[in-house]
Design brief:
Helices cover about 75% and strands about 0% of the residues. By secondary structure, the protein is mainly alpha-helical.
């Protein structure tokens, strides 16, 4: 295998945001698991393979098209300047062709091997992400709220891939993903505030330099995540072990979130970065732990 090929594969992995796509696949798997549970069919089947592959293809393609649209912005930010497009290792046309092929191909794949509803929903999610959320990032902090809608869709797509319909349980899983995104993405925006400001990305920590509004939103959504995460128990999707575990995980995440408030530091303060990094790591651990516990303690 040539060095050139290896480097190209690395560029593709970066273009398609392979690590983010992995998390998307895991949450989609959870949705598929509960959908299969609801239908009384096996959650380990070729249907699961087709669902996760199709969702991964569209997620990868959407990420690539996002980098095409934001290549000029990425070039101004230190953390993204070495991506394939701003660094010049890949052309816009090449990246756009890859992104379109993956997005359209994945949508059609899901429509054929899963069902038309999932194919439509995944394509619609990509459109909203690219045409609404992506440009809104340069306009208003509302982008985080808007972006939380497509961001919460993978678990829904996993569900519909096996059931072919939207149900109340789908909305519960969606709600958990939706609320979780705020402490997660606000901690990222806080951590990379200077980079976002350089790229004219108007995340809340950029326009809220004293950090107060950002901190209160982090605390509010972290607190809200506790009762929202208990809804699967109320709906009979998970049992007592999950109930206790969800409370413990939620309280732990809220405790880490409190580190952003005491002592109160502005978003511009270098001393505030460790707290934001701890919160980011906590959110990354929280979501897969919560979904894994929900799946292990699932109730028919």
């Amino acid at each position: 295998m040539s060095q050139k090929f290896i480097l190209l594969m690395r560029d593709y992995a970066e273009l398609t945001k392979a690590r983010v796509t992995t998390l998307i696949i895991l949450t989609a798997w959870c949705g598929y698991f509960f959908g299969a549970h609801r239908m009384g069919v096996s959650s380990w089947s070729m249907g699961l393979f087709h669902a996760l592959l199709g969702i991964a293809l569209v997620a990868s393609g959407t990420a690539a098209l996002n980098e095409v649209l934001e290549s000029n912005v990425d070039a101004r930010m230190r953390r993204t300047a070495n991506r394939p497009l701003p660094s010049g290792r890949m052309t816009i046309v090449h990246a756009a062709a890859v992104g379109l092929a993956l997005t359209l191909g994945g949508s059609l794949y899901l429509a054929h091997y899963a069902n038309r509803l999932t194919g439509f929903l995944v394509f619609f999610t990509a459109i909203v992400y690219l045409s609404v959320y992506t440009p809104l990032k340069r306009v208003s902090p509302m982008c985080t709220f808007v972006g939380a809608f497509p961001g919460a869709m993978p678990v829904v797509l996993g569900w519909t891939a096996v059931t072919g319909k939207l149900e109340v349980e789908t909305l519960i899983l969606f709600a958990i993903m939706f609320v979780w995104q705020f402490p997660h993405f606000l901690s990222i925006a806080w951590l990379y505030r200077e980079d976002y400001a350089q790229g004219d990305i108007r995340m809340l920590p950029v326009v809220d330099s004293d950090g107060k509004s950002t901190v209160w939103r982090i605390l509010a959504y972290s607190a809200a995540l506790i009762p929202v995460s208990l809804l699967p128990v109320a709906l009979g999707m998970a049992g007592r072990v999950y109930f206790v575990g969800a409370i413990l995980l939620g309280v732990a995440l809220f405790r880490v979130s409190m580190g952003m408030a005491y002592p109160q530091l502005p978003a511009t303060a270098a001393a505030s970065k460790p707290s934001a990094r701890r919160l980011l790591h906590a959110t990354i651990m929280y979501l897969p732990a919560l979904f894994a516990l929900m799946m292990v303690n699932s109730v028919r």
